[in-house]
Fold this protein.
Amino acid sequence: MSATPTAWQRLMRHPTAIICLVVLAVIVLAAILGPSYTGYGYAQTTDQQFASPSFEHWCGTDLHGRDLLTRILFGARVSLMVGLIGTLVSLIVGVAYGMIAGYRGGRVDALMMRFVDVLYCLPRLIYIIVLITSLSRFTKNSPEARLVLLFTGLGIMEWLTMARIVRGQVLTLKEQQFVLAARTLGASAPRILIRHLLPNLLGVIIVYLTLTIPTVILGESFLSFLGLGIQAPQSSWGSLISDGAAAINSVRIYWWLIVFPGLAMGATLLSLNLLGDHLRDIFDPRTTKA
Amino acid sequence: MLVFFIRRILGGLLTLFIVISITFFLMRAMPGNAFTKERKLPPAIEKNLLAKYKLDGTVWQQYRGYMSDVLQGDLRLSTKYRSRTVNEVLKQTLPVSMTLGGVAFLIALAVGLTLGCLAAIGHKTMLDRVSMFVAVLSVAIPNFVIAPLAILFFALYWHIFPVAGWDSIRHVVLPATCLALPFAAYVARLTRNSMLEVLNQDYIRTARAKGVAEARVVLKHALKVAILPVVSFSGPLAANLLTGSLVIEQIFKVPGVGAFFVNGVLNRDTFLVGGVVIVYSTLLILFNIIVDVLYTFLDRRIQLA
């Protein structure tokens, strides 16, 4: 754990990383506080259809006259929650799976990793759609339950890479002296895994975490874009961009429907990606020399 | 070499078998069947329909029947697109997706390698910073944001390319570019990093000391080694691109395999989805084997075993 403060200090030396953190903090704050201060509800319709950006509606309105800014901020809640919960699920599954495979080694390891290889061959879309449709009986009456299902489903899709990375690390770590020492002192396997190996994996996990969040957010937008994710009148960045893309025609151009949700999403994903890159430079000794 | 081929192909077939099985059982695990969505059918008709599409009997019987049909190259009838076989649907849509994906693959490699080399040569100069920022940007901004914007500017404002459709070469440019963009960016980053590592090595210094021109050093001596990570990435990339991007095909109204796949999953069309998964997995396995073989040609130190 002692590596954490120095890593933090090293991160603070990169101006880009600070900017990224600030941008993310602003977006998170706006998502939490924003929707109650815009003066409109996310589902509140008005008779001003497709109004361009003005003082009344900073980002304009959509087909049903709903305030786009409110919908983007509400969508930020959904998209960020998806990112967090989905990543958490992928973290728990992936780390546990990778640690067990790496620590047990031998035939168990070979079998578990072959299974991961096979899952890599399956289009991930299938998992999630099957999950959502087969459980839709229970979520028919509550959009919230549907959201939770979506969140966990997206997390379940993304654990494969995490499992591979963690397993590779555990394979080298478990051969080291301190593990041997712990084992001679009579520590049980779960104790070695959690108390001795997990802290050493923290760096890799944190790096990969910042890179998984954007993947999960993208996954949700992808589903919403295809009409499988968030259902109207709820919104996520993906569903807003999808609506915007659908409203493109050669007669009139409602650019704000694409540009503003795209900007919100782009800024978030860009910050997370840049942050992840910097963290990788800090934690991964191999890339620092390049 | 021969042993390697046999082992890899056997392993690939096993993977393929498991993937088909998982897909089949996942699709059959969904509640209801392909015909429950429409208005309630009389039981007799539903029974006949299920028999026609070979969806009657226990799941185990269905599975065995399906597997033996697949082995004989019959991917069965689609339940969503009635009276068409999956083979027909694939025959019609795959060439479209493959053209789009193939062009995108070439664009991604060409643009990515060029940008990556330029960034590595101009390491820590403006060229490097700008091209890497553009790379991060196009990885971060999803192509379904870029695609509508591209339509907005290139088709609606400037009238350079058609808005959507699939009739001529000009229709390929926008969707292929949008599809290739994030992958080009990823290739660029891979190339830059491995190129930087290679350029620091002794044999490169030797070449420079002998007075070999810088362009020749990079293109002839360094690229041959630096390209290895890109080669291993290009296997899964090609499989992904060739089966098409659902989103890009939808935005540009390209009649590829993507829309059929999504509709297939949504309508519980087990056999259509199975067919697409078979094609996708086969391509993925095949490309991974090709990548391994390519490796031995690029790096003679690697022995296939």
About this structure: The mean pLDDT of chain A is 79. The two ends of chain A are 26 Å apart (CA to CA).
